[in-house]
Design brief:
Layout lengths: L13 E3 L4 E2 L2 H10 L5 H4 L1 H5 L10 H16 L4 E11 L9 E13 L5 E13 L7 H4 L19 E13 L7
Antiparallel strand pairs: 1-4, 2-4, 3-6, 4-5, 5-6
Length: 180
Amino acid sequence: MPGRYYEEFTVGETIRHDKRRTISESDNQQFCDLTMNQQPLHLDAAFAEETQFGQRIVNGLYTLSLAVGISIPETTDGTIVANLGYDDVEHPAPVYHGDTLRAQSTVTDRRETSDGERGVVTMQVEAFVVDPGEGHEADDREAIDDSDTTGGRETTDDGEVLVCSFERTVLSEKRPDETA
C-alpha cells in the first residue's frame, strides 16, 4: 500500500504530490451533470462571458474533489478508515478549462484515538494551477488580456496559482503489529 500509517505522518511536513491533472471541458461538464449542478457560470459560455471571469470556470467542488484524489496515493491509499471532515475550504482563484492542477498536503496535527487503536491526522491541502495560461483553448484565451498569461490570477513565487485550500481530517490505521 502506498499510503501512510498513522505513525508515518509528521506534524509540519509537506508532502508534494506527484500526480497532476489537466481539467477538460468534458470533466467539468460531467461533474456538473453527475451532481445536478446547472450553474451557468460553469456551463454557459455566453453567460460566463458577461461575468468578471470572462469565461466559464470549473466547478469548485470538482477542484476540491480532484485535490483530494491527487493527494490519496502518498497519504491515505489503503491506510484510511474514514474521512472525518473537510473544513475551512477556500477558492482564492478560479480554475479554467485547460488548467493543470497539482496538490500538496501539510500535516498540521495528529493524535491517537481514545482507545489507542487508530490515529486522527489533519492535513492542510492546497491545489495549484501549474503553468497558468498554458493549455487553454483559443476561445477561452480571448477573454484573457494578451499580456496576462495567468487569467488575471495572482501567482506564487513558483509561478503557480493557488486555487483551492482546505483542511482534511482522516481516521488512519496504525501500523499492523508485526510480532503477531
